[in-house]
Every structure is written in structure tokens, then in C-alpha cells.
Amino acid sequence: MKIKLSYILIGLIFLFLTISKTYSHADHYKKIKKIEMDIYRNGEIIGFSNYIFNVYDDIFEVINKTEFEVKVLGVKLFSIKSLSKEKYENDQLVEFNSETLQNDKKKFVNLIFDKSQNIYIIVGSSYRGEADKENVIGNWWNHKILNTNTQISPLSGSIKKQEVIFISKENINIDGKTFVVDHFKLKSKNKNIDDDKKLDFDIWLNTKNNIIVKVEYNRLGKWQYILKNVEKN
Fold first, then answer.
1. Among 222, 51, 57, 231, residue whose Cα is nearest residue 143
2. Count of C-beta atoms within a 10 Å radius of residue 85
3. 58 and 112, same domain (yes or no)
4. Domains contained in the chain, number
5. What separation in angstroms does the CA of 30 have from each of 11, 161, 172, 181?
6. pTM of the entire structure?
7. pLDDT tens profile 86-118
8. Structural domain boundaries enclosing 81
């Protein structure tokens, strides 16, 4: 009887862990209505990246609008206007669409999850083909970006191999509020690609609620995405 009871307990624990793994990610973000981030370049605010979360039945959607513009002496050097939607069913990404205007050049991604093959099918401005379902869309609302080996560009659909290194646990101050965060370094796995295509980000994650509070990188200046507001349901 004791042996049978042990097997039952082990089975229940395994079932609990499986269910938690399946639903914990989506359930966490279902409590959030909006995440707003300000975008800075060299200490000056130049735009925003906002995420809106919608939940109905088994569907979880994330809509992102990102806009910024860099000017020097009144001349526009760089700009982005982007709108995207991620759609999840039971924590599995099943559809992603984005349209982006980058320096007046159009970019796009149309992704679907092929359930019969258990893979993503991508039609993008930089890549057309298949991708493993473990890929994560490279957006800053999703802490899973720190737990994957590859990400999909939300602008063009290209697949980028990455490595994530834990740096330290730190205290960070944003708008007078102090957060206890984990500091990570996210870099491209391939060191031989062009510098303008390399991933090289410092990311600070609030482990209390799994929200990224700051992203920083250097490319023709110092860029920062800094958490402005979290609106809960």
C-alpha cells in the first residue's frame, strides 16, 4: 500500500509540475493589461514601445506598438513605426504578424504554427521557411527571451541564435522606485556576423513579477528601453 501510495504521490507531483509549466507563463501575463516603455537615445527620450494584453477563452494576445525617431540638427537619421500582434493558445504561440516602416523601408512578418508538423512557418521580409517551435519572438514584454537559444526578429522574421549570461543580482532605480533585479547579458552566438546584425543587450529583469524593467545597448549611441508603467486588470 505504501509503495502504491508513493507512486500516486509521484504521479500527482509530476502532473502538477506539467500543468504549472504549461499554464504559468500565460496566466502570469493575463493579470496585466498594459506595459509601457520609454525609448531613450543618449539620455534623450525619442519614442515608446507599448504592449497591450487581451484575453478571451483560451486565447491570449499581445499587441505591440513601437515608434521612435532620431534627429540630428533637425535632420531625420533613423526612425521606426511598427505594429504587431502575437496570438497564443494554451501558452503556445500560434500566430504572429507585424508591419514595420524602418527609415521608409517596409518590413513584415507573417508566422503561423503548423500543428501537424509542430513547427513555425514564417514568411518575412528577411526570411521565409520553417522554424523550431522553441523560438521566441524578440519582444521585451516576454521574459522567455532569456530562456531560449534562438529568437525570431519581430521586424523581419529572421532567426537569430543567442546566448544569455547571468551577470548579477542588483538594485536599480527607475523614477524614484527601487527594484531588485537580475542583470543578464544577451549576445549573438555567431561572432562572425556583421556588427549591425549582432545581438548585444544588457537586460534587467524584475524576478518578483517577471517583467523586464530595462534594456540597454550601444549602436550609434546609447539606447535604453525603460519601464514607464504597468497597468493591471
1. 51
2. 15
3. yes
4. 2
5. 28, 29, 26, 22
6. 0.85
7. 999 988 999 999 999 999 899 999 999 999 999
8. 31-232
